Write a sequence for this structure.
């Protein structure tokens, strides 16, 4: 099908894309709580009259399937959850849920996938194969088992027959008309740690009678922050950051213990394991100084591994766009659970305003016309992947 025709179809959906996005924006829901959002998605999908719809997938997830004859199965994924952030905006469609906000663009992702669904339902005679639209819950958080929405949906078995998959993410640091792509590791392994440093507390005026865990922690933190370039190759991507340090109850009392919590980020698995090892070595410094420690490391999302072939398809679908080829940063993204199972890729879609509104910021916002671009690129990418032309 002529790509320019698909661009026109996406352009014609602009008012609907805006209406959908603003509706989701006004009623944001946190991870594993996306009940209204999924109900709205199902209502809109039912209006297209072409999809087999599975609801309550992995919690509040929705998987919509469109099949036309024999052929490959292509998945297209959007996340639906919001963040625990108080919005600071004067828009007419500001969040109506106190302390909850779509500050990462998931409202736009969902609207774009609905636009993609509408166009695909109207042109299904133009392709052979199956499209699976994945409206995923809980990208931003994990449950008590440490499982995010992508893990839950994969466990359902509904995606077992997927051959390839694509996804997008809004990109406020690039302007409309720009696409960011990268082959291989493009977002980070995301692991968390909790380090308990035990000493022996006592009076702040008599520190020599104590084993001060705060003093112990200064050696540990210096060792942690020295890893890059001393223990890890400075040309390899990896970092450890402490985000919380808790301990003590009074200004003149040395506590028995302190707790340090933080994040471990990396791209390559060997660097990930090296950082884990060196964090343990840093923690063990406490023992040589008379203290002790307990360290727990929880593996989170793996690195996002973008398949080069899928990226080339996306780049072809984005003909005419400026393409920036570099990693997306040290954030994490649970679409990585899909990219580690089959050829798949995510692209970052330029949507920046004159004043950049960064991800997870209380004033986050987008150029809504970028949703036209996202819809057209997803539709064209899916069609290329379903044709012989899109074969590897």
């Amino acid at each position: 099908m002529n790509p320019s025709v698909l661009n026109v179809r996406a352009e014609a959906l602009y008012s609907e894309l805006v209406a959908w996005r603003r509706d989701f924006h006004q009623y944001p829901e946190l991870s594993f709580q996306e009940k209204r959002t999924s109900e709205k998605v199902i209502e809109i999908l039912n209006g297209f009259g072409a999809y087999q719809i599975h609801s309550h997938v992995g919690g509040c997830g929705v998987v919509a399937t469109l099949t036309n004859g024999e052929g490959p199965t292509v998945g297209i994924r959007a996340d639906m959850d919001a963040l625990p952030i108080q919005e600071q905006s004067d828009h007419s469609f500001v969040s109506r849920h106190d302390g909850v906000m779509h500050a990462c663009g998931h409202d736009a992702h969902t609207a774009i996938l609905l636009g993609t669904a509408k166009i695909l339902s109207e042109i299904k005679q133009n392709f052979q194969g199956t499209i699976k639209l994945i409206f995923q819950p809980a990208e931003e958080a994990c449950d008590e088992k440490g499982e995010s929405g992508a893990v839950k949906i994969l466990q359902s078995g509904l995606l077992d027959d997927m051959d390839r998959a694509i996804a997008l993410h809004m990109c406020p640091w690039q302007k409309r008309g720009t696409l960011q792509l990268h082959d291989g590791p493009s977002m980070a392994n995301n692991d968390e740690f909790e380090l308990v440093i035990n000493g022996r507390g006592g009076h702040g005026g008599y520190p020599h009678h104590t084993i001060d865990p705060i003093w112990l922690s200064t050696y540990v933190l210096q060792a942690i922050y020295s890893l890059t370039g001393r223990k890890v190759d400075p040309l390899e991507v990896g970092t450890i950051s402490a985000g919380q340090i808790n301990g003590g109850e009074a200004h003149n009392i040395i506590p028995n213990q302190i707790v340090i919590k933080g994040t471990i980020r990396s791209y390559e698995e060997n660097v990930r394991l090296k950082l884990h090892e060196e964090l343990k070595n840093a923690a063990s410094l406490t023992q040589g100084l008379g203290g002790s420690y307990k360290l727990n490391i929880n593996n989170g999302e793996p690195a996002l591994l973008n398949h080069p072939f899928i990226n080339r398809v996306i780049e072809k679908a984005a003909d005419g766009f400026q393409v920036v080829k570099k990693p997306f940063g040290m954030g994490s993204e649970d679409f990585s659970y899909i990219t580690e199972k089959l050829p798949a890729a995510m692209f970052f879609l330029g949507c920046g305003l004159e004043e950049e509104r960064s991800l997870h910021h209380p004033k986050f916002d987008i150029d809504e016309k970028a949703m036209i671009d996202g819809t057209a690129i997803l539709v064209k990418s899916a069609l290329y992947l379903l044709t012989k032309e899109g074969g590897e």
Observations:
- The mean pLDDT is 96.
